Amino acid sequence: MVVGIWYLVYGIWHMPKLSVIIPTHQRADILDHCIHHLEKQTIADDIEVIVIHDGQDDKTDALFDNTAFHITVRYGSIPKSQQGVARNVAVQKAQASTCLFIGDDIFLESHACEHHLAAHAKIAEQEKGPAAVLGFTTWDPAVGTNDVMHWLETSGWQFGYPKIQKYKHRFLPKKIAHKFTYTSHVSVSTEIARAHPFDKDVKMYGWEDVHWGAELRDANVHLYYEPDARALHHHFISMEDSLKRMETLGKSIAAFPSLDRRPTGWKLWAYRLSALLPTMVGRHRKAFLRGLRS
Length: 294
What we know:
With 294 residues, the chain is an alpha/beta fold. The protein folds into 2 domains: 2-233, Alpha-Beta Complex (Spore Coat Polysaccharide Biosynthesis Protein SpsA, Chain A), CATH 3.90.550; 239-293, no CATH class. It is built from 12 helices and 9 strands. Strands 1, 2, 3, 4, 5, 6, 7, 8 and 9 form a 9-stranded mixed beta sheet that branches. The longest helix is centred in the middle third of the chain and has 14 residues, at 112-125. It is globular, with a radius of gyration of 20 Å. The model is unreliable at 1-12 (pLDDT under 50).
């Protein structure tokens, strides 16, 4: 009886400080590596990991049936929908006061979670109001890199960190913050995450992050850039992959008429002219316009 009460009290006292939210879909091997990086966090004892599989997958199920992780990991699955719905389900299960959204191919460096919590504590101490904290992500050299991956990173079409370097350890201007609310590596209070769930009606990949970021912006949730919370993106993208992705972005922008990312007027004409050129920019804009027309 005494032992039972002790465990109950310990469980209440030792609530996690950070809930790491990971949506996944049929990538058990990469997900396994992702979680092992979380096991190496400096505050591993203070985090919980919530993985929601979007759909059904025997291999992912087996990973959690057969693997004993050294941190608290909770796993569930939902009928095939999309990753935003998976995140919403996970947030409802979160026990910590802060949620960190990452992708299943995002490998956090050992101090990343600690830096996220420290940034939130600093913001709260300075009474800066509600905020999301963006961590830094770059390509994992283990998968190799190429010219198109470098372009995606510097252009902002995948990650645009060079564009916000001057805002490190600061808040991004409100007018641009929504463009950088990358759900592959961003944290926010669980209260805010529950108040602003991801759009369950989104069916196509492409603009979900920007749409969610715009909703946070309109709710006066500011975006703070913490470059010391570092991560590697374990994903290789070929030119063919990148052009297919860009075409999808062109198709899916129609689902978000309120966003400011669809080219119109002179900008649309600039896209059309540059699409005639056999350059990195030209080829990608050509693919984007092809998706836009369809």
